[in-house]
Each structure stands twice: as C-alpha cells, then as structure tokens.
Amino acid sequence: MTRKELIEIIRQRESFLCVGLDTDIEKIPAHLHTYDDPVFEFNRRIIDVTKEFCAAYKLNTAFFESMGAKGWETMKKTFAYIGASHFTIADAKRGDIGNTCDMYAKAFFKEMNVDSITLAPYMGRDSVDPFLKNKNKWSIILGLTSNPSAADFQFQQNANGAELYKTVIQTAASWGNEENTMFVVGATQAEMLKEIRSIVPNHFLLVPGVGAQGGSLEEVVKYGKNKDIGLLVNSSRGIIYASNGEDFEEKARSEAKKMAIEMARFID
Amino acid sequence: MTRKELIEIIRQRESFLCVGLDTDIEKIPAHLHTYDDPVFEFNRRIIDVTKEFCAAYKLNTAFFESMGAKGWETMKKTFAYIGASHFTIADAKRGDIGNTCDMYAKAFFKEMNVDSITLAPYMGRDSVDPFLKNKNKWSIILGLTSNPSAADFQFQQNANGAELYKTVIQTAASWGNEENTMFVVGATQAEMLKEIRSIVPNHFLLVPGVGAQGGSLEEVVKYGKNKDIGLLVNSSRGIIYASNGEDFEEKARSEAKKMAIEMARFID
What we know:
The structure is a homodimer. By secondary structure, chain A is an alpha/beta fold. The first copy, chain A, has one domain (3-264): TIM Barrel (Alpha-Beta Barrel). Chain A is built from twelve helices and eight strands. Chain A has helices at 3-13, 38-50, 61-65, 68-82, 98-111, 129-132, 151-154, 164-173, 193-199, 217-224, 237-240, 248-264; strands at residues 17-21, 56-60, 87-94, 116-119, 138-144, 181-185, 204-207, 231-235. In chain A, α2 packs parallel to α4 (68-82) and α2 (38-50) runs parallel beside α12. The longest helix of chain A is centred in the C-terminal third of the chain and has 17 residues, at 248-264. The radius of gyration of chain A is 18 Å and the shape is globular. The two termini of chain A are 23 Å apart. The model of chain A has no long low-confidence stretch (mean pLDDT 95). The interface between A and B is large, with 60 and 60 residues.
C-alpha cells in the first residue's frame, strides 16, 4: 500500500484506528471452540464488526506462533481475509543480519503478503535495508516503546545528551523515507511525541498503548498528529476482549466505533 | 538443559561448535528436491554427519518462516530430530512486551521444545523476564553483533563513555543468572571479548560470525574462553554449504570435523 492510499483510507473512513488482533485462544469466547480454527473464527468476526471503523489491522505474530504451524496458517488466513481494504501490519519485531532479513521479508511481504512489519533497531541499518527494498511495503521501526522497561536502554543518553530512542529515530529516518518507513512510539509516553515530531515531522507513527496500557488518545493527537494525520493508533485488548461472552462482537464493535467517533473529531 | 549438562557435552565431545542450520531451499543440492520436505531432508543429513563434532545446533527462524506454515513444521521436526543430545537454539531475535513474550516463550520453549532463544534487548527487562521464568531454558541476549552496522547503535557511548553494548550486557546480566542467560557476541569483534569478559566472566557467550563472516576462532578463544569454556561458536554457511553437490554431506562433515579438531586443542 502506498502512503497516498493509506492517507485516503484514513480520510474516507475518518479513523486512524488500528485494531490489534493479539488473539489468545485461551481468552476467546467459549462458544467459538467448536470451530475447526477458533482463532480464525474469532478474528473473522472481529474484522467483520470493526472494519468500517478502522484503517489498519495489526497481528501480533507471537500469538500465532504459540500455536505452531497451525497458528502460522491462521495468521495467513487472517491477513488474507482482511484483504486490501486496510493497511496490514505484522507485529513481528524482527531484526537480523542482511541475508536473514531477506528471508523475513520473504516470509512477511511475499508469503504472508502484508503491507508492513515491525522491526527492532538494535542491529542497525543492515537489519532494515532488506525490507526497504520492497516496493509499497513498509518498515515500522521501534522508536520509543510503551512498556515500563523501555527506560532500560531507550532513555540512555549519549555524550550529547540525546536519548537512544531519538538517535534511533533520527538515524533510521535516513535509511528510507516517508513512503516506506514508520516508527513505533508508545502512547504512554505521549508528551515525548512533541520532540519526536521535531525529528520526523512527516513520518507516520504507529502508536500502541492506548487503552489497556493506559495511554490517552487526546494527548497522542495533540502531540503526534501532522498534516497527513500521520498516526495509526492501535488498540488491542480494549476492543477484542471487550466481552468474552456471546455478545463479544457487539461489544467489540461498540468499542471500535467509540474510538472512531473520538478520532473523527480530529480529522478535518 | 542445565549449564552443567551443557558443559559436560562440550567436554565429552571436545567441541564447543554450534552448527547453524540457516537452510535456504534455494541453496540446497538439487537432488534433494525430490523429497516431500527437502529442507528437513537436508537438515537431517547435515545433523547425521555433524553431530559427533558439535555441542549445539542453531536454527535461524527466518529461513523456516520464509516457507510459511510448512516451514514452521519443518523447524519443529528438525528440533525434534536433534533431540536432547545437543543444546538447541532458536535464533529468533524476539523481543516484545510481557504478555507477548509469554506467547513467544510458549511458541519456542513448549511448542518447539528448544533449550534457548535469542532475544533483542531494545525493549528492556520486560521483554526478557517472561523467558527467564522457564526452568532449564535459556535467554541468549544480543550484546555485540557481527554485522557491519552493529556500529550504528551498539557503539553509541553514554555520558560515562560506556558503549551501549556494554551497558546492555551489564544490565541484562542482572536480570537472570549464569544458569539461564547467555549473550551473543560477534566473532568479527573478537578483541572486544576481553572487555566483555570483564563484565560477564562466567556467562556463556554465543559467538556467530566465524567463517563466512570472517571471524577468527583463535582470537575468539584467546579473549572469550573461561574456566568452563563458556563459548558456543557458531558456523552456518561454512559448514552446511561447503558443497551443493551430491557430496554435500561429506564436505559438511569434513568442515565440522576440522573445526572440532581446532577446538579440541583449547579444551583441557
């Protein structure tokens, strides 16, 4: 998907919501367990009731890998079910040397046919370049994460007083461009979006941590929105586990709709 | 596998060689393509001819993921084929927030039943703790990698002049202990092993980059060996692709044997 197409989807749908399908087979409603592939059935139904309210879906690969080869198949089926109407994200946080990353790019961009993959930056440029070679595919690089121990290394200051996450964002922004690179910036650190925007004013940011992890949408928009919106705000548990009863679709729909209505206010 | 068991394997086999099964279906000998699962057939044969010369096998998950669900099955079959006679490593370089890492731990320690997994440290302690809870399983944390762009961030100095990779190793060493934590240290940076040993004198180090990537075994041992050996030195392409003809088993065996003979010199 191109940047232009993504922006169009956001504007038309009046939503920059990304629904996170972190589907844990132990947390889905009991009545789905009679299906051959309960996780796919859950995902399919969540997609059906949320698709009009969101611009993107993010599948966390760990939840599928925990089910082995069958889970990998479920992940592929889910991405295929979403199709081209939404921006798709494999939240895989991969990162390795060049020839290995070519394999990950093949796994996700070709075999799984997703629009984007999240990447860990520790190994530097070699670990991102192989992904950037793929036309209309995106690398979403970890900048500032939403977990408490993000502080362990991401806040380390260099001799000039710049925190590691800023160095990462500034450096990694030069590897690709605004058409193929985004950054993960946790919503729990929303006020830091201001400084991040001074480094990458035009890039899209993927913002997890709104909802279950405590981040505020208002703050994210205040500090993070740019002229093209420039945000994909993810909510996972707050939507998909809004209920674990027979009404889970209705409740998930209602939560997604609520977020989309909030978001529409911020779209001109 | 416990640390004691690992050390016993190394001493008995007089080898701290780890054979890296970065098996690319496009690089294996043509005559194997008639098999149902050519990659498994290749791995099985490589294991058969190298097992007496090595202490560990490392499977690079990217190469299996690039084949989709079938590749995931091949990875599982390969780990099962190796069994308990060798230390097994899923070279997955995962790292995410806590509840996600629980899923990765389930994927690799339970579903795949490996002894260890490689982890990227960018997200800090939360992203490693879930793995450390698993008894007799190991977290192998990226310290200093062997790729050229390791320098992008790993060499960033903090206000006290300490490079990031040292901060990572020092900090992460305190999360677990010598019985459940190792560090990845690239062989191409062998002289830096001296300083790393001053930080973690007793931990095992997984050392990739000997062979195809240009690192020297002599140097790795000189700076990295400790009283318990404390090293697993990986070679992938140098062994598994020593030939891509019908003699690939003989050539792989010969390369592994050569490395084991070199290594035996360093084991008391």
